[in-house]
Design brief:
Layout (H helix, E strand, L loop, with lengths): L4 E12 L2 H7 L4 H10 L8 E5 L3 E7 L5 E6 L8 H11 L6 E7 L9
Antiparallel strand pairs: 1-4, 1-5, 2-3, 3-4
Helix pairs in contact: 1-2
């Protein structure tokens, strides 16, 4: 049984043609990227989450145009309501940064799992 869906704010770092390219841009080894993408193939609407640099959360989000967003993820601000996640993302979208909302089948709101 899947965990309840969680929504989290994310700040865009770059856009890419594939989820593997986006994960590599976030600093993950290519082999690990391929494993993450293969493991998530049946849930394309979900974000791909990873932890790098001693625990920093990053995510790859699917974009409407078929591209992929490489983002800094704020999973500690995850919540059950997309509107609340959008509000939290808006607070992060300062100085010209683009904020998005990611979706994951994760831990309870306000907690981190990895």
């Amino acid at each position: 049984m899947d965990s309840e869906l969680q929504y989290f704010p994310a700040v865009l770092r770059s856009e890419h043609d594939s989820p593997i390219d986006a994960l590599v841009a976030l600093g993950l080894p290519r082999e690990e990227c391929m494993e993450l993408v293969a493991a998530s193939w049946d849930r394309p609407e979900l974000s791909l989450l990873a932890w790098v640099d001693g625990g920093r959360a990053v995510a790859v989000l699917p974009l409407a145009e078929g591209r992929w967003a490489a983002c800094n993820a704020f999973v500690e601000q995850s919540c059950r309501e997309p509107k609340e996640a959008l509000r939290r993302a808006g607070k992060l979208a300062k100085r010209g940064r683009r904020a998005l909302v990611g979706i994951w089948a994760g831990a309870p709101a306000g907690t981190m799992a990895g």
